[in-house]
């Protein structure tokens, strides 16, 4: 490739260099020994659930993911290397039929389940049951073993499934049998010649469900529609018909020992052999995969993938060799196509032949570019020969060579010419030439934005020339320091092809700039050429093939519709819309792209989780390796030490495996899917405890795959569990409560101690007060009493008034002394218990009623009442209540008997009942006197209730119910 296109990387993987093609060459990608196929002869092709291909050869079996072959042979456990049939069951176990037995491949291990028997025609029906033929006898796999139980005595030549997964068998001498509800019934009879020869393949039509194709090795292909038999294909020259398949458009592919024939629905036929794309004419098998690719196995040269006829590559045309770099394509006024090449000069295609230009200045030269101006003149830049013009009749040199070759040019709307060399731009108008310099980098392309504005693409970005002068205020920051290779207009967008940065679009109306790279489906980030076809689709030539793009006015974005399966590097500016096709120059010939071809595939890649490695933080022996297809997709719960995962995933996209990119995220860790990456392995370390779901999908050629995922849980350590936190919280609360309880109890104990000390002090004071009171007041009262007696003796009897006064003094002194005894008794701490109070009341009653003729007694005083401590206030008021009560009885009741009963009521409170047999009274007629009021008032002070029950002539009962609780004492 020329220097402006940098390094040439020729990627030819589908044709051998020595093939001579006379006309168009159909595109096949070949996979052989060099690519990893274990043996060149592929006898059977089968696609697994994960979309990988299983290939049976005469050298073992191989699994192909689009890039890598993983092979198994006798050395790995196969009973034979000669593979005849392959099928996969619902558990992803692969059954491999060989010439001498049947193997099962499961979890990478191979075992034999049948030996000494030739196996063929393995099929899986809609129930997931595996069927096959062994020496033309039918068997079914049950519990991992082949069981010969149906159609025992017949020769079965082939098996097939319809679109519903129902099983059919061809029985030699009878016809086609169908298995329904476990019974085989005749489905279709045949002519004797077909029945006797046998049928090797059966195929149900993928469009017309009533149509069935049968292939006879010697007689060709027949179709059956509602019982009607027709011959579809037969050729005289093939001696054997090997296989039959159908593509997504309904085309029928028939493999023979003389090549493969494609019968299209429109009744056209294409014949492929070793002259136009294949390297061997004997075709063993044809297979359509789930992406609608057609795979062809040839007898001696491996496996081929058909890439369709939408992109046709020419390395030889009409006897003219074109297998070299094409640097320019332009059309003149007569619609001749001018083709510039590298070191092979200029060629002309007139619609019938291709001829080399005889001009010695252009012959066998390196043509830098070709260009067609507004008048359909063709301009040619030749290395070291300057710029030439072809006006339809002759060539003429316009510009002589300078220090660098001319690499691009433009004719503007005013008819002036702009010509680029790497170091300067020439402006030519009316025979005058103006040089424009001062640009950074090397000039590479030129485009007219409007009559006074020219865009120049350079190796350091894009410049705007206004009226021939550089506008330094014009800037597109996304293009700063980027190598611009081509500029074109599409709709309202100005498009920039770059080297390494993809395609950049600049919308002149909105000013919005967008970048399109390999991550969005473009084959490569190196964009060399761009052009628009008659249907307004954009075509771009890249470093890895050709893309067709459409523009959406709704989203304002480009979308990749398709890409060429031809992986080769295009050349700068070498593209033209010519006769309803896009013709593109590449480093190895021309490619013609059909602009109206309906070849877009809607099926994207298929993604699956391949391998999971769980690393233990401290113990390598506890590392876990998991292959999800052999276990449940949900991982067991992992400990918090197993928080480092390595996840390997894979996408199968057989259409274009090199374009696969991945996007992933870990739900619970990542907010969104990652940017597209090439790597198919990712690691997560130091994952926190919790529930997670890993998700991954692939994108290729603008299509997204399924989202594959698996879930797992990392169990938190015991100290990080909710239960532990709740228990810890409860323990903390209990601890706080315990601390505060201890504090409160300590305070309470201190308070009790202070109360005890206080009480002890009070008792000391009371005792001291009683003693002082007794010694002081008692002595003085005694002295008063003695003095009053002395005075009484000294006063004569005649002085009665003085005598009465002295008697009153003595009487009051006695009463005061008697009251003083009660006070002293109350002050004494020894009186602060129920027993002492009741005893004191008893003594008072005995003294009161002595010598009165009234019988008095008190019952129910128990010694254990000494344990019931009462306050001095309680003692005093209870004592005064009974003094008042007994005095009233003595004064008013006229009773003969007075009884006080002390007892406990039903709630274990003390009740004191006073009963006299006096005259009683009517409570309704007698106002309560001061005595009764005093009793009632004092009862309230000590939280006691006071009730009186009386009736004229029936005595009086007075009940005092106290709040003294005596539960802790026995009866």
Would you summarize the structure shown here?
By secondary structure, the chain is of the alpha+beta class. 16% of the residues lie in helices and 41% in strands.
Write the layout of secondary structure elements.
Elements: E1 28-31, E2 42-47, E3 53-57, E4 60-64, E5 69-72, E6 83-88, E7 94-98, E8 101-106, E9 109-115, E10 119-124, E11 130-134, E12 137-142, E13 145-147, E14 156-161, E15 167-171, E16 175-180, E17 183-188, H1 192-197, E18 201-204, E19 211-216, E20 220-225, E21 228-233, E22 241-246, E23 252-256, E24 259-263, E25 269-272, E26 283-288, E27 294-298, E28 303-306, E29 311-314, E30 316-317, E31 320-321, E32 326-331, E33 337-341, E34 346-349, E35 354-356, E36 367-372, E37 378-382, E38 386-390, E39 395-399, E40 406-411, E41 417-421, E42 425-429, E43 432-436, E44 443-450, E45 453-458, E46 461-466, E47 469-470, E48 484-490, E49 493-498, E50 503-507, E51 513-516, E52 527-532, E53 538-542, E54 545-552, E55 557-563, E56 570-578, E57 581-586, E58 589-594, E59 606-615, E60 624-626, E61 644-652, E62 661-667, E63 681-684, E64 690-700, E65 703-704, E66 708-714, H2 722-794, H3 800-827, H4 834-849, E67 855-859, H5 872-893, E68 897-904, E69 909-916, H6 930-941, E70 945-950, E71 956-965
Parallel strand pairs: 67-68
Antiparallel strand pairs: 1-28, 2-3, 3-4, 4-5, 6-7, 7-8, 8-9, 10-11, 11-12, 12-13, 14-15, 15-16, 16-17, 18-19, 19-20, 20-21, 22-23, 23-24, 24-25, 26-27, 27-28, 29-58, 30-31, 32-33, 33-34, 34-35, 36-37, 37-38, 38-39, 40-41, 41-42, 42-43, 44-45, 45-46, 46-47, 48-49, 49-50, 50-51, 52-53, 53-54, ...
Helix pairs in contact: 2-3, 4-5, 5-6
